[in-house]
Amino acid sequence: MNYRNPQLRDMLAGEYVLGTLAGPARRRFEQLLRDDYALRDTVGSWERRLAPLVDAVPAMAPPKRVWRNIEQRVAPKSRSSAWNRVGFWRPLGIFASMAFVVVVGYVLVDATKEVPQPPAPAPIAQAPAPVPATEYVALLNDQKAQPVWVVTAADFKQITVKVVAPPKIDADKAYELWLLPGENQPPRSLGLLPLAGTKTVTVPAELQTAMAAGKVLAVSLEPTGGSPTGLPTGPVLYTGLLVTTS
Asked: pTM for the full model?
């Protein structure tokens, strides 16, 4: 792979910042970053460019397994070092623990002979924990690769569009967002884009499957009120790709 190719370097830097560059490819890229100052500048440029995602993507609590993994990595070392410092007391501690178990067992057995014990209640079934929704995000960039809108989606049931840099537009025009399903299927409209603030749109059921299969978004310039034909009639000015944030 020619890592001196400017387009390849820019693409890899963008995927590295987004987190979609993984495995051996990510490790090779990190090795290049150690000695390639220009490549580090490219990564820094992508980080500044994608900074609006921090405000656009809703905060998510890390799964419990993350904290368990952290405790498993940290706690054994602490217990091991503390145990070695009191090695002299280890045999005494084991003996005391065994004696305590024997005494408690004797008391419990003796108590059960005098007082009949009621049957143990059946365990209460716990409802399965809800599965968190998968989050997707797309940047709709202008010709200078600067983000104009940030689109977030939760399991393709709804999308939220946030304006990053308000675009200029004539009073008789509007920007319309389209889903490109691919496989020779026509574009499907997802509604008009806002020129300021944030807008949330529920995705129709028939488009949810198409969005899961395509994930490519495009923006066209249309008359006020949107395309009169159900298909893009003006030039396509912005495009973006929905990628998972997990």
From this structure: 0.49
